[in-house]
Amino acid sequence: MSQRTLVLLKPDTVRRGLVGEVLGRFEAKGLTVVAMDLRTIDGELADQHYAEHVERDFYPPLREFVTSGPLVALVLEGDEAVEVVRALNGATDGRKAAPGTIRGDLSLSNRENLVHGSDSPESADREIKIWFPDLP
Ligand code: RTP
Ligand code: MG
């Protein structure tokens, strides 16, 4: 079933010049870009996006990281897009992510792991409304 999912190319992706590489993998897979925006976010948006994590020990440095520079926010669409993006992203920790995945090939960090992908269709709806409130 066709779905939409919210993807972030986090500030490490932009800083490292990997936007083309990472976006290219999603496009090559067959997903369609339906919204895309380069922006630097403030802590308030980070708190909304990561509402489920704000009380966690790892959140303060994560908040610092995601607000540290421009990121690319994307809405991708395609069959089973939520699960497909999570599979392409790989495990959270880049050191443990399988080769062939974005994190497994390109990240050596549990925090600076290049990408975000919504973890369920419900999360995708919530996150798309936060990042792209005007998207039809
Ligand atoms: P994401 O939300 O970014 O797609 O990643 P995920 O589902 O694989 O991981 P999640 O558990 O939702 O964590 C969100 C982001 O927080 C950072 N993180 N740091 N122990 C730590 O230091 C730690 N754990 C997670 C990562 O940037 C992770 O993507
Ligand atoms: Mg997550």
TrEMBL record:
<feature type="binding site">
    <location>
        <position position="58"/>
    </location>
    <ligand>
        <name>ATP</name>
    </ligand>
</feature>
<keyword id="KW-0460">Magnesium</keyword>
<feature type="binding site">
    <location>
        <position position="103"/>
    </location>
    <ligand>
        <name>ATP</name>
    </ligand>
</feature>
<dbReference type="InterPro" id="IPR034907">
    <property type="entry name" value="NDK-like_dom"/>
</dbReference>
<dbReference type="InterPro" id="IPR023005">
    <property type="entry name" value="Nucleoside_diP_kinase_AS"/>
</dbReference>
<feature type="binding site">
    <location>
        <position position="92"/>
    </location>
    <ligand>
        <name>ATP</name>
    </ligand>
</feature>
<keyword id="KW-0418">Kinase</keyword>
<comment type="subunit">
    <text>Homotetramer.</text>
</comment>
<comment type="similarity">
    <text>Belongs to the NDK family.</text>
</comment>
<comment type="function">
    <text>Major role in the synthesis of nucleoside triphosphates other than ATP. The ATP gamma phosphate is transferred to the NDP beta phosphate via a ping-pong mechanism, using a phosphorylated active-site intermediate.</text>
</comment>
<feature type="active site" description="Pros-phosphohistidine intermediate">
    <location>
        <position position="116"/>
    </location>
</feature>
<keyword id="KW-0547">Nucleotide-binding</keyword>
<keyword id="KW-0597">Phosphoprotein</keyword>
<dbReference type="GO" id="GO:0016301">
    <property type="term" value="F:kinase activity"/>
</dbReference>
<protein>
    <recommendedName>
        <fullName>Nucleoside diphosphate kinase</fullName>
        <ecNumber>2.7.4.6</ecNumber>
    </recommendedName>
</protein>
<feature type="binding site">
    <location>
        <position position="10"/>
    </location>
    <ligand>
        <name>ATP</name>
    </ligand>
</feature>
<keyword id="KW-0963">Cytoplasm</keyword>
<feature type="binding site">
    <location>
        <position position="86"/>
    </location>
    <ligand>
        <name>ATP</name>
    </ligand>
</feature>
<keyword id="KW-0067">ATP-binding</keyword>
<keyword id="KW-0479">Metal-binding</keyword>
<feature type="binding site">
    <location>
        <position position="113"/>
    </location>
    <ligand>
        <name>ATP</name>
    </ligand>
</feature>
<feature type="domain" description="Nucleoside diphosphate kinase-like">
    <location>
        <begin position="2"/>
        <end position="136"/>
    </location>
</feature>
<keyword id="KW-0808">Transferase</keyword>
<dbReference type="InterPro" id="IPR001564">
    <property type="entry name" value="Nucleoside_diP_kinase"/>
</dbReference>
<dbReference type="InterPro" id="IPR036850">
    <property type="entry name" value="NDK-like_dom_sf"/>
</dbReference>
<dbReference type="Pfam" id="PF00334">
    <property type="entry name" value="NDK"/>
</dbReference>
<keyword id="KW-0546">Nucleotide metabolism</keyword>
